[in-house]
Amino acid sequence: MSAGGHVLRITRIDVTRMVRKRTGKRTLGSVTGLLMFGVLILVATVGGAWGGRAIGRALASGSLEFDPAGAASAARGLVGVFWVIGVAMFALRSVGQRGTLTNAEGILTVVPTREAYVGIVLAEYVYFLLWTLVPAAGIGVGLALGSDALWPAVGLPLLMVCGGLTLSATGYLVGLGIRHVITRFPFVARHRSGLVVLAFVVYFVAIFTGGLNQVVVNLFDPVAASPLGWYGDLAALGLPGVASQATYALGAVGVTAVLAPLVILAGIRVAERHWFADPALAGEVDSDSDADADPSSAERGAAGDADDAAFHGSPDRLGAALEGVLSRPTAALVTLAWRRAIRAPLKLLYAAYPLLFLVGVIADIFQTGQVPAYLPYGLVVFVAWAAGVVFTLNPLGDQGSVLPATVLSAVTGHRFVAAHVFAGLVVAVPAGTVLVAAAGLLSPLELERVALLTAVAPVAMVVAGTLSVGIGTAFPRFEATNVTRSMEAVVPSPWAFVLYSLHLVLTAAAVGVVVEPAVRSLAASLLSLLLSTVLSRFTLSPERLYVVCATLLVVLLVLPPLSYRYAVRTFDEYVLA
Amino acid sequence: MASGRSLDGGPAIETDDLTKRFGDVLAVDGLDLSIPQGDVYGFLGPNGSGKTTTMRMLTTLTRPTSGSARVMGVDVTNRRELISVVGYLPEEPPLFDELTAREQLQHVAALHDVPRDLATERIDRYLERFDLAAQAGRRLEGFSTGMRKKVGLIATILHEPPVIFLDEPTSGLDPRAARTVKDLIAELSGGETTVFLSTHILSVVDELADTVGVLHRGRLVAEGDPDRLKHRAESGDEQSLEDVFLSVTADHAEEADEASDEASDEDVDRETSEPLDQPDSLR
Asked: Global pTM?
């Protein structure tokens, strides 16, 4: 088979594997994922066509008045910025899983590295086109229909074909380079977790403070003036009122013809170094290869562990201290939970995901310097939620292959469950309480209300911890899933997440209705309005809602101790099949 | 080293018509075992023959569909009692990659409530014996297959149970490490620990086992001490344990296929099986 044949085969196998991975299992997650993909593509294509036609019409009729040269420059800047963002996204994929060849030994000992590399880059390119080509065609057809200019129907898909090739190739190269530094340089590799956490913090601070927006704004003009901006001409050529130039559009094709091979050649050089370089930390290898094959890994691993021991102190000291208050097996489980969390903190990243909903709020706080009055209330719910997900929402799955050994030890269900709840609450209660108190003091809430919320927070966390351990035991998850593009971890199952979160939200809502007359009136009005669409002339009085919520609250508050007991019994009777 | 209950010479492991079904699949079919204390029992069988399921039932990790079993007199439905008398090493050693070897062993010792000083003494001793002392401070994620197997084995015997179940304990080990494991097994059985040893490496069984049982399609198709099995085989054309294994599993594969065909036409009289098909004839 020719080199081209090898490349295409590697690409085809990669894409086939991805498709089968997404469609092979009829699980709730995979079906939802497929459905989401279909809906997103459909909405982007149909919506894009509709929007494109409207813009095309507006441009053709002159109702959108632009300076033609300015409009062309804006198109160049916009497309250029999107190209850079796309490169960043593909680089992130490459830093994560895509920078590693699956079954590397089976590929690199069979075909030259350059063929393997090009095959993988082409696969990345295919994934880019899977997401973008059809919507781009929709937008292009819409623009063409609205403006009576034929070119956009061809130009936009051509933009994806040309721009996508350089974007995916550049992204893969950049990501592979970063990956090489992260995994092959001992100092960086040893501090990888800290550096990734730092990168996340910088990223979020940049979002909250508006720094990221400023970066994008600052990028706009340089990319518009660079050859990358010519991709904008490829997309907007022929549109009325936009002074795009055919030479630049042709130049964009030329840029692709020159840049793509150059980037791919550079990538091959990086791959030849990276794929054959020894990992800097023992155990950080990409496959389950035998470390015996690399004697030097032992030395490097030892160095890393020496550093680790110096940081964390004697491994026995913590356990010995805990044994003063807990039984020896319980203390061992608590120590284990903490030690694993400290050594792989990114595996707990999912607990911070709800903070993404607060991006707007936190950005406002940074920019206005004021904490809104509702934030401490929201934080009580968040800290309670977080306290229940970290160590207790998947206690069986967290044990992984070690579960049989734990089951066959002196650990009883009571000890097992208590250890996980204790491990979570000892960390969450002080941190969560301080967070709520600080937010309350900085907010315009009265001191009495702040004190009340500060007192409620630890109670809510204890309730959440005892609730989540039962739900997590009832719906365990043992297989790993991606928490970031680059890291797999065993996270709680979707059912556990949904049921636990639902319970918490319902409890918070019921408390709000029972305690706050204003919330009660508002909720009664909203529910009456909502239900009247189904049941005509239905009204829900605040008094009736109070009774309903008070009753619901009793039921909801009975569930946590029952959940705890269920977890104890389940562990005691646990069998593998 | 066995430190469990005394049974006054009764069997360490005893099963009676032990059966496990997974839906329509019969994984273990009416298993009858009686293994004396201090014996090494070599448990052989092709892939998927029910060996791991049997070990899981005997360690309470899987519930039998029917039948009964006792380990050191403790019923396998009584996990709280049973855990003090068994140690189980699955084929894939149960380890936390984030821990160092020493931390893993300290963790397991604590789970078994082994006093701290005693645990430290045992851990040091076994780490030394398995040439792991120098690597004990390294995280397990960097350990080779063989090193992981050794750590798993140490974790299995740390609380010194009277009965240990080992699933492929020597696979992935270099000859020196395999020798250490075999010596340990011999030493344990010499000290009245009963070892239930599942492996595909027939030379290990040949060297160590007091009794060999061959499981095929969930049924015990041959059982006896290795020499007698081989002697019987020598009366035909067969000369080694491997030949015996191939013979009894092949015979039963054919028999099972034939029985399956015949069952569709008429009832099969199980009493008409060939002598080699009957475990008792080899005991």
From this structure: 0.69
